[in-house]
Amino acid sequence: MFNAIKLFFKSNFYKISEINKRYSKPSIKITRPVRIALFCLRVYLLVLVGLLVYKFVTLL
Amino acid sequence: MNFIDSLYYKYRKAFKALKLFLILSGPGIIVMLADNDAGGITTYAATGSKYGYGLIWFLIILLPVAYYVQEMTVRLGAVTKHGHAEAIFSAFGPFWGWFSLVDLILTDWLTLVTEFIGMTAAMSIFHIPPIITIIVVIMIMGLMVWQGRYWTWEKISFLFCALNLIYIPCAFMVHPSVSSILNQGMIPHFPGGFNNEIFFFLMANIGTTIAPWMIFFQQSSVVDKGLQEKDIPWGKIDTLVGSAMTVIVAIFIVIVTGTVLNGINIESAAQAAQKLMGINNYVGTFVAIGLFDAGFLGAICISLASSWAFGEVFGWAHSLNRKVKEAPWFYFSYFFALVTAGAVVLIPGAPLVLITLFVQVIAVTLLPAALVFLILLLNDEKTMGKKYKNNLFQNITCTTIVAVIIVLSTLYGVSALFPNLFK
């Protein structure tokens, strides 16, 4: 049982680095609108995570 | 004679088209009716009891909203033959890929817990203990996939979709005033004026119309069913029929609670069912059955959305056309999500209210990303080809819808974090 779990994580750790390698080059054409959209998405997520952290801190 | 010939020819053509539609339909109808999950039913029941028929017009507006978003997943799935998780990895690289996958798994699992909360609450009305409900649900869901045939799973899901229509006879049984529905419900207005409370209800209704798992589910389902580019028009009709059905069910729920429970504050659909039972036993029973079915449909789709996404990214066999032995990790992740989510509901004193609120917050971190990726992918000629990429009309419509959904669902999520913001 333990060996099976160990093997599962070992093989999947290898798999994760393989996935990262496989998809390392984005296939979509990075045009100006795409770049702007992805930038806005990053800002949006940062703000949202900031709000979550703020809520968590004020709850403590 | 010519007239009879042409009539016969037209009849045969229509019959053939209907037959083809019945073969190719499925993902759109299932995902849309599953959208009326336990949380959705609660939102509609609360909307009806709070504002009567006053917001029916708003639910009608949600039909094109749901259709245009989900229709894009049909095209993307049929053209790329990839699910949404794999498409994000491939198009945007590992950072956005892992972000979407981890967020999806977390959101799906939390939503799954809320579906079990709905199902156990509904069955508790019939004095069935939660543990029995959870075991039976997992067993039925196991039997649905055991055959190793997508077709079998889809047709059984259709039966549960049909049960979702139980709210329609319910509405007729409470004898609503048709003229009141037409006068109050069909003319756009805000009952009691536009205030923070009504804004919260509008956000909640939009929030239940499009959920992140729906995008992932329908695209993967289209791929697993094997729809081709030539089938896209049928996939669109399937999605349109599904969108219409989901809105019709939502309207009938509002009619039921708007007729019988108008002016009463409802906190859950199970509470509405219990109150309705006191007034009309059959209606209350039907609403409770409908709530169980809604949670069940949601659970079917959500657990599959996660398993498909995992399988696509990790390269495991990930099809309902494979038997358990042939796709062990696909089915393991399917059952693991179900069993753990069910177990959480059984833990005494588990923070179920907190989980329900947390779902809304986590979902808004994923929904905008999934929607933006969808629009970007549908505009990429390399991915979609000239024929199937978004045209100008689709871009204007879809971008407007996506922008409105992002703003409103974000405000809804933020209001879950800071409850006094809109009060």
Structural summary, described in words:
- The complex is a heterodimer of chains A (60) and B (423).
- Chain A is an all-alpha fold and 60 residues long.
- Helices cover 82% and strands 0% of the residues of chain A.
- Chain A is built from two helices and no strands.
- Chain A has helices spanning 2-22, 32-59.
- With 423 residues, chain B is mostly helical.
- Helices cover 80% and strands 0% of the residues of chain B.
- Chain B starts with a helix and ends in a 6-residue tail after the last helix.
- The A-B interface holds A 12, 15, 19-20, 23-29, 33-34, 37-38, 40-41, 44-45, 48-49, 51-52, 55 and B 89-94, 96-97, 99, 313-315, 361, 364-365, 368-369, 372, 375-377, 379-383, 410, 413-414, 417-418.
Give the arrangement of secondary structure elements.
The complex is a heterodimer of chains A (60) and B (423).
Chain A: H1 2-22, H2 32-59
Chain B: H1 2-24, H2 27-35, H3 38-51, H4 56-80, H5 84-92, H6 94-124, H7 130-146, H8 150-163, H9 167-173, H10 178-185, H11 196-209, H12 212-225, H13 232-260, H14 269-279, H15 281-314, H16 328-346, H17 352-378, H18 381-388, H19 392-417
